[in-house]
Amino acid sequence: MGLKLSFSIFLRPSAKICVPLKKPMEQKKNGLLLEGQGVTKYFGGLAAVSDVSFYLNQGEILGLIGPNGAGKTTLFNIIAGVYKPNQGKILFRGRDISHLRPNEVCKLGIARTFQITKPFLEMTVLENALVGAFFGHQQRHVMEEAQKKSRAALERVGLEGKAERKAKSLNLVERKRLEVARALSTSPEILLLDEVVAGLNPKETGEMANFIGSLREGGITILMIEHVMKAIMGLSDRIVVLHYGKKLAEGKPEEIAKNPQVIEAYLGGIKTQSA
Predict the structure, then answer these.
(1) What is the CATH number of the domain that holds 117?
(2) Chain segment 228-257, per-residue pLDDT in tens
């Protein structure tokens, strides 16, 4: 008799990763903040994202998962204004932002990090954060105000002690934190996190997970891509699964973990023989 593996295989404690327990989602009553309606993006004849709809409530952490090439980062780029959808639209607070440029999207209150960190290496950590403070606001900041906001962001990510160091001196974990600090310097309502846990060891992963949880507690709504299943399952209120550019499933983490289609997509329908 065949026994199908549960998706929880990814959650087994082979390494100790401490992920904070989610608090009850009371923010849902605050309403819809971001929505995608039938979003489609073609590159040549290939649909990288195909008819994907999603919603993000204020105060929520929404996880976005899927195998490599599923369209996750493409969807992020559409939300952030890097790509324009061929079909469908992105709504922020009910406003269609599909046609806006990245700087315009950012100034509305949507900031993002990048999967591969690329700080300005010859600039100081503070100067890197200042880029976000000047770039991401409707009104122009004077230097004193921008520095105050940037230093607050660096303190929030634990880099205040390295503000005057060159960014090239930072290790991988610190560069990931700087990436988040630049985004936080824009004072976002929504933060798009693209694999901020990738490449971290179990201790660092736990610290980053706690940090992400603290961002939500501080009032920031989060949409995150992550391949570290233990982290994203522990942090997310809901999860959307993409596969070959299409939405395969959506639900609470425990529902996604047991979804046969998700198991098929990740494990290829692997079966193990029971005794």
Answers:
(1) 3.40.50.300
(2) 888 999 999 999 999 999 999 999 999 999
Q: Report the DSSP beta bridge partners of residue 249.
A: 241
Q: Is residue 252 part of a domain?
A: yes
Domain count across the chain = 1
Position 16 scores a pLDDT of: 45
The secondary structure of 193-257 as a DSSP string is: EESSSTT--HHHHHHHHHHHHHHHHTT-EEEEE-S-HHHHHHH-SEEEEEETTEEEEEE-HHHHH
- Domain assignment present for 51: no
Up-side HSE of residue 214: CA atoms within 13 Å toward CB?
A: 12
110-112 and 87-92 beta bridge pairing: unpaired
pLDDT at 144: 84
Compute the distance between CA of residue 14 and CA of residue 260 in angstroms, rounded to an integer: 23
Which pLDDT score, from 0 to 100, does residue 137 have? 62
pLDDT of residue 199: 87
Residue 215 lies in a domain: yes
| CB-based contact 266:67 (threshold 8 Å) | yes
